């Protein structure tokens, strides 16, 4: 076991980690930040995406000890300073970009990374960028609308059901 310290969501945080402890487990079990989900344990689904030093990373694919000293942002760090939903989170709510919510943290983190890299992506670019994230509920249509809306582009409203 070794003490691992990272700047997580703007605060210095420390917890013990074995050499084989994955970042996702360190966040969830060591820091009790349970918004980052474990979906597949094989780096396929994207439910565990977080930002490490500003880049999207599947937290099930990297060891916590390797990131000692890193800057990490989780879904808990995506809210505004006043606690209200961040832009991408609000768009997911407004455009019904979630159903069961299991994939949502990873989708929001991936979408935020895309918008940082490409502030006005096309629909095709959004779909391509999110290929590493699996949603088993929505069919992606409203997720794509939410990302487009978060980018400030005009999006057709979602019809009330």
From TrEMBL:
GO MF term list: 2 iron, 2 sulfur cluster binding; metal ion binding; oxidoreductase activity
Gene3D superfamilies named among the record's database cross-references: 3.10.20.30, [2Fe-2S]-binding domain
Lineage: Bacteria, Pseudomonadati, Pseudomonadota, Alphaproteobacteria, Rhodobacterales
Primary enzyme class: oxidoreductase
EC number(s) on file: 1.2.99.2
Keyword terms of this UniProt record: 2Fe-2S, Iron, Iron-sulfur, Metal-binding, Oxidoreductase
Record's protein name: Carbon monoxide dehydrogenase small chain
Metal-binding is among the record's keywords: yes
Superkingdom of the source species: Bacteria
The keyword Iron is annotated on this UniProt entry: yes
Matching Pfam families: Fer2, Fer2_2
Ranges for domain 2Fe-2S ferredoxin-type: 2-78
């Amino acid at each position: 076991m070794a003490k691992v310290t990272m700047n997580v969501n703007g605060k210095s945080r420390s917890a013990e980690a074995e050499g084989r402890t994955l970042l996702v487990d360190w966040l969830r079990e060591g820091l009790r930040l349970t918004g980052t989900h474990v979906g597949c344990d094989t780096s396929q689904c994207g439910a565990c995406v977080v930002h490490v030093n500003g880049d999207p990373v599947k937290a099930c694919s990297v060891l916590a000890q390797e990131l000692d000293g890193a800057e990490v942002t989780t879904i808990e760090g995506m809210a505004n300073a006043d606690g209200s939903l961040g832009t991408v989170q609000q768009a997911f709510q407004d455009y019904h970009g979630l159903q069961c919510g299991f994939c949502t943290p990873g989708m929001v983190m991936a979408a935020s990374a895309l918008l940082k890299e490409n502030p006005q992506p096309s629909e095709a670019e959004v779909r391509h960028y999110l290929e590493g994230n699996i949603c088993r509920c929505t069919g992606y249509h409203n997720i794509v609308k939410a990302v487009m809306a978060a980018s400030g582009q005009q999006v057709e409203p979602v019809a009330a059901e």
